[in-house]
Automatic annotation (TrEMBL):
Organism of origin: Juglans regia
Entry GO MF terms: hydrolase activity, acting on ester bonds
Pfam families linked: Lipase_GDSL (PF00657)
GO terms of biological process kind: lipid catabolic process
UniProt name for this protein: GDSL esterase/lipase At5g03610-like
Entry similarity comment: Belongs to the 'GDSL' lipolytic enzyme family.
Classification via InterPro entries: GDSL, SGNH_hydro_sf
Keywords, ordered alphabetically: Hydrolase, Lipid degradation, Lipid metabolism, Signal
Cleavable signal peptide: 1-28
Amino acid sequence: MDTQKILCSLLCCFLISSILSGQQAVQAGHHDNVPSNIRPLKLFVFGDSYADTGNTNKTQVAWKYPYGITFPGKAVGRFSDGRVLSDYVAKFLGVESPIPYEGWKSSSRGIPLLKYGMNFAYGGTGVFDTVLPGPKMTVQIDFLEHLLRDNVFTGKDLERSVSFVSFAGKDYFTYIVTNGSAEGLQSFIRTVVNQLAINLKRIHGLGVKKIGVTGIVPFGCLPVFTGTSSLQQCNENYNSFLGFHNVLLKQTVEKLNKETKDSPFFIFDLYASFTSAIKNEGSIKFENPLKPCCLGTSAVSREILLCGRVDENGAKLYTLCENPKSSFFWDVAHPSQEGWRAVYSALQATLEQDFLQY
């Protein structure tokens, strides 16, 4: 099997695993030095499992034990033991984490629930349709547009808002399993980034003043790729596999900002922030940054790293670490609450520079 096919196969394993697949207060508060009259009042979130706070179908593992054991103490749809990156972005802005769209739909839809914006992110989705059921990013933006049309939110609401857009790469998995052409992957990456750019422009066109979008994380440092090194070392070959996405995204955002007044778009560099946290370069340290807290007990196949699964008798098919704070990764692909706090800490300078200048 050639190198490209091996890489594609491993990427498939990672994404399949991630598809199947705090009590501590957030220590980073909002910034009191930012005048209240220019601080954003609402946050609108789009994307996937790195930002989803409860929209995903309740059959997914994010709604099952041990997810949510750190915060809020039970599984509520976050793909972590606690808070995820969108929660930290909200805290940075000085607002509560906005209500998930699905939670709002099933509630009495009271206006107080909309005070801080809304979260439209669904775990497992992408900019196009993926193998998981769920609204792609275009449809998520449709949801906001419909709410504007129905006067649930107003243009004035969006004038004092910002947006966080998470993209974790589920489109690439779908491409590989349905087309199988590694040779055409680079062309498909261009298609994905182009559609992502269309989505960002559309969010801005609705009235959102500042929009941050995530870059791709270092895949070679995810637990599914570090198993061959006993969860001790990142595989740089895998890190570079989809590196073209980040290069192209940077070029695309620069172009968008040249074409748009006030340069509203910027990138959350998850590649750099994950790397910094994994290398224990920040103030938050981890015992073994590459070992997930929730680890599948199977000794064979990709199931070795699945979290939250049980057998037909309800017996756990995973082991759980004693202290999730000691682990950067929670499961096969998602950071723990403490891991996300470390990522947020590494991102904070970017947030200071870009997210509040609008």
